[in-house]
Design brief:
By secondary structure, the protein is mainly β. The chain is built from three helices and ten strands.
């Protein structure tokens, strides 16, 4: 079987694949490397090794994605990240997309709003990050 036959068999034929970008066309339509005052995300098909979480007082936790966290989004409560050693709660506004990026290990860092006041200038707003160490 030729390379072209294999590409067509597995859905990587010319109609489904953008050869100049070397990634599926649907992925290339995403905004690459979203960044805000509150977070930064790697480009599609890139992954972070560690998530940096920064509180407004400067307290910083580096959380390795290798701990295989459970990431939960609840529209009323925000984002919960649970691992064997620590539970992290993130509250704010518009957090569903941030939770999706966390689930894909694409978020480089997240920090709380310095003022604690939502000025509604950004689609995603991070009010608080809470760390709770497990027993």
């Amino acid at each position: 079987m030729s390379n072209q036959d294999l590409k067509e068999k597995w859905g990587a034929g010319s109609q489904n694949w953008d050869n100049s970008q070397k990634k599926p066309q649907s992925v290339s339509s995403f905004k690459s490397n979203p960044k805000s005052e509150f977070f930064e995300v790697f480009e599609p098909n890139s992954f972070a090794n560690t998530l940096k979480l920064v509180k407004r007082d400067g307290h910083t936790v580096y959380f390795p994605y290798a701990q295989q966290p459970i990431i939960e989004f609840n529209p009323e409560k925000g984002i919960s990240i649970k691992s064997m050693y620590i539970d992290i709660e993130i509250t704010g506004r518009g957090l569903a997309q941030l939770a999706d990026w966390l689930g894909a290990s694409r978020v480089k860092w997240i920090k709380e709003c310095q003022s604690g006041i939502d000025d509604k200038k950004e689609k995603i707003f991070v009010m608080d990050i809470e760390f709770n160490e497990r027993g």
